[in-house]
Amino acid sequence: MKVVLQNLTKIFPSRNKKSGEEVVAVNDFTFEIPDGKLIGLLGPSGCGKSTTLYMISGLQKPTGGKIFFGDDDVTELPTESRGVGLVFQNYALYPHMTVKQNILFPLQNLKGADKMSKAEMLKRATEAAKLVQIDNLMERKPSELSGGQQQRVAIARALVKMPRVLLLDEPLSNLDARLRLQTREEIRRIQRETGITTIFVTHDQEEAMSISDMIVVMKLGVLQQIGAPQEVYDDPHNLFVAKFLGTPPINVFEGAVSGGKLIIGEQAVLDVPGVADQDVYVGIRPEGFIPEENGPMTCNLSSVEVMGRDSSLVTTHTASLNPLVRSIIDSDIKVDPAAETVNFSLKPHKVFIFNKETEDRIYFEVN
Amino acid sequence: MVDSKHQWKAWLYLAPAIVLLLIFTVWPIFNTIRMSLLEGYTTMQDVAGVSFNFGIGNFKNVLEYHGFITCLKNTILLCVLTVPISTFLALLIAVALNSIKPLQRFLQTVFFMPYVTNSIAIGMVFAAMFNMIIGGGARPDSVGIVNNVLEAFGFEYINWMNAGSEYWANIVVMVVYIVWNALPFKILILLGGLQSVNKQYYEAARVDSTPRWRVFTKITIPLLSPMLAYVIITGFIGGFKEYSSIVGIFGEKMGPVGQQYSLDTMVGFIYRAIGNNEGRASAAALILFGIIFIVTMINLYVSKKKTHY
Q1: Would you tell me which residues 39-58 of chain A have a C-beta closer than 8 angstroms to some C-beta of chain B?
Q2: What is the pTM assigned to this prediction?
Q3: Which of B24, B97, B107, B108 is deepest in the core (most CB within 10 A)?
Q4: Residues in chain B closer than 8 A to A174 (CB atoms)
C-alpha cells in the first residue's frame, strides 16, 4: 500500500491562551512512500516524526493537508477504519491478557465479512507468533517477558490482522544495545517477508540508515530530505542533514571560498570550481581525510586510536566548530603518534560546503 | 536491618504507637475474647467480685436471643443489596466522569460531597424526603418529595418509613440511603484507578477497531479489577457494620414507630447489650468478626482469580 502525504500540517494550540503561541509540530509535509518499503522517519526529538506517525495512524487529526493510502483519501477516516497496525513505543500490551490473547484481540474485533472462526483466528495468531518467533511463549503474560519478547508480541499483534500499513513508534528505544541490533534485523526480515509498507520513527540515525529503504529526515516540523540512506548520506542538502547522519559525525569548519579555492584557516585545501567568493561552513566526513606529507590541510594531532580495521586520528584545528576533528583512515597508513601535526589531502566528494546564512548546500564540480 | 546497638532507638520511636495499640486495640480484643467466654458476664458484677462460669454459654445465648436472627437477616440483606448496587453505580459514574472533559473537577467535587457530610444529618434529610405525616384525614397531612414524585407519575403514595410501613419499604429506604452514602468513596477509588490506566491501551484498542463495549469489558474492567476488589471488600466490611445509617433515618429504636428494632443490625445488637450483658455483646462481636472474616476470605479468593495483578 502506497502512502501519500499531501501538505500535511499539524499545529498544536498553545497551552497558555494568553500568549497564544502555537506549536507547529508538522509543517507542510508532502511526500510519497512507495508500496512495500521500509521507511524511517528520522530526526531529533521534537521534530514532529511521532506526530506524523500518529496522523498516519489516525490517532491524531491533521490541522491541514491530506493522507492517502493507495488512492483512498483516509484523512477523515477514524483510526478504527484505517486498517493500520501500530506498535507503540512502550508496546501497550494488555497486561491482563496472555500473549495469545493479546495477539488474538484484533482478530476478535473483526466484524461482518471479515469475521473469522475460532480455529481460523488461532491459526492466524500462531502464524503471526511464528513470524516473530514467540510461538513458544503464547501462554505467558507480558510481565513475564523480556523487553525484546514484548516488542515481538507487539509486532505480532499489529501484524496479525494484515494491516495495510504497519507503523512503529521508536520500536527499539526500550531495548539494550545488543538486542537493538538483533531486533532491527528482525524488523527488516519481517517487513521483507510480509511485504507490508512499514513506517518507523527513530531518533537514531544509525538505526534508520541500517534497515530503511528510504529515510525521511526532519527538523522542527520541517522536512529536510528524503531518499535512500546512502544517497542522503552522500549528498546532504543542508548542514543539518550532514551533521545528523553519520558516526562519527561530520567535522564542520568555518571557511571561505576565494577564487575557486576553498580556504580553511589560512590554507587553501581544495579546488571548488564554480563557487562564488563567500564565507561558508565546510563539512568533511571523517573518511574524507587522506594523510599525506604534502597535504594542503594541517591539523594538530592529539592522538591516534587504533581500531584494527582502521584507525581514527583525533586532531584539532582552529577553524573547527567541534573541539576535535576526527578522521578515519585505513590502518595500513601509518601515522606517527608522536608527531605534532599531520597533513591531509581531502577527498572532494566527502567535502560539502554550505551557505553561511541559509546552511544550504553549495555544489561544486567534483573532478 | 537496624544495627543491634541502635535497636533500643528503634523501639523508642515505635513505643508511642505500640503503647496506644496495646491499650486501644490489643487489650480490647483480648478482653472481648475473655468476656465472651465468661457466661453471663457484666462489668458491674465483675467489679463487685462476682465470679463467672467459663464456657460458651454467651454464644448460645446470642444465637437463642429473640432479636438476633432479625439482626443477622437485616445485616446480610442490606449488605447483599447495597454492595453490588453501589459498586455498579459507582463504576458507571466513575467511567462517565472520566470520559467527560468540561466541568469534570466540579462534578468530582459534587459527587464527593456526601463523603464529607455527617451521616446523621444526611439521614435526617432522607427521612424528610421519605416522610409522610398521617393526620386524621383521608389524605396524609404532609408527604416528602419521594411521594410527590410518585404522585406526579400517577402512582399511589407509599408509606416508606412511618408507623405501619411495610418491611420492604423500609429496606428500600435504607438501600437508597446506604448506596447514596457509599458512592463517593467508591467513585473516588474507581476514578483514581481509571485515571491511572495508561491511555495507550485505549489507543491500541482503537487502532485494532475494538467496539466500545468490548473496550469496557475486556480492557477497562480487568485493568480496574484491583480497585473493584478493594471497593467490594471494604464495602462488605462496612456493610456488616451498618448501624448509624439506620439510626440516622429511623432513630435509636431502629424501626418505624410501633415496629421497634425491626431493622436492627448486628452492631445495633452488640451496642445495646453493652451495659447490661457484656458477655453477650462480646460473643456477638466475635460472631460478627467471624462472619466478616469468612466473607473477606471468600472475596479475596474470588478476586485473586479475577484480578490480574
Answers
A1: 57
A2: 0.78
A3: B97
A4: none
